[in-house]
Specification:
heterodimer; A: mainly beta; seven-stranded mixed beta sheet; four-stranded antiparallel beta sheet; B: mainly beta; six-stranded mixed beta sheet; about 0% helix; about 55% strand
Chain lengths: ~120, ~110
């Protein structure tokens, strides 16, 4: 149980275009979803925390208008990278938490974004 | 910003040996969690230890927590080549933040 599906697993896009990444909890309801960015051989940097039905809480330095996060249901959150630039190329990972703070995070397999 | 730091950054051992990784954090916690990441993949939850617990076991994993020192350790006993991965600790309430991670290599 507790499967999170993240899609697509990789995407290549041209500068200036937008890319949408989906994160779905398949067999549980995710009260909270988290979006992370990871550079090679580095740790996960929290981008934003998303609670169902509310606006996402963005980390300092993360542009809200560039990284649009929507958490419209208890099983789906999306991250849209708008007007992508090469510096946005990275590994993006979502995770979902079922209920309380004492619940573990369940991760998608990540999306490798390459902007050319 | 990151919540804490793991050490060592990298660890290389032989199969059968034990591996110990440490994590330090900065703020008060409700729990501390350990995760594993294989290269290019998502993370897998290993173990969660609550702030009122001092030690927890799961199979070959043993986690300790010292809230007075704001530190935790993860011990993997009788390591296997398949344990090769990066290991991260994470803490947070409505925000879950990860440490820098330890890259473990287990040589067969």
């Amino acid at each position: 149980g507790a499967v999170v599906s993240q899609h697509p697993s990789w995407v290549i896009c041209k500068s200036g275009t937008s890319v949408k990444i989906e994160c779905r909890s398949l067999d549980f309801q995710a009260t909270t979803m988290f979006w992370y960015r990871q550079f090679p051989k580095q740790s996960l940097m929290l981008m934003a925390t998303s609670n169902e039905g509310s606006k996402a809480t963005y980390e300092q330095g993360v542009e809200k208008d560039k990284f649009l996060i929507n958490h419209a249901s208890l099983t789906l959150s999306t991250l849209t990278v708008t007007s992508a630039h090469p510096e946005d190329s990275s590994f993006y990972i979502c995770s979902a938490r079922q209920s309380s703070y004492n619940s573990p995070l369940h991760f998608g397999n990540g999306t490798r974004l390459t902007v050319t | 910003s990151q919540q804490g730091e793991e050490d060592p950054q990298a660890l290389s051992i032989q199969e059968g040996e034990n591996a110990t990784m440490n994590c330090s954090y900065k703020t008060s916690i409700n729990n501390l969690q350990w995760y594993r990441q294989n290269s290019g993949r998502g993370l897998v939850h290993l173990i969660l230890i609550r702030s009122n617990e001092r030690e927890k076991h799961s199979g070959r994993l043993r986690v300790t927590l010292d809230t007075s020192k704001k530190s935790s350790s993860l011990l993997i006993t009788a390591s296997r080549a398949a344990d090769t991965a990066s290991y991260f600790c994470a803490t947070g309430y409505n925000d879950m933040r990860f440490g820098a991670g330890t890259r473990l290599t287990v040589k067969p």
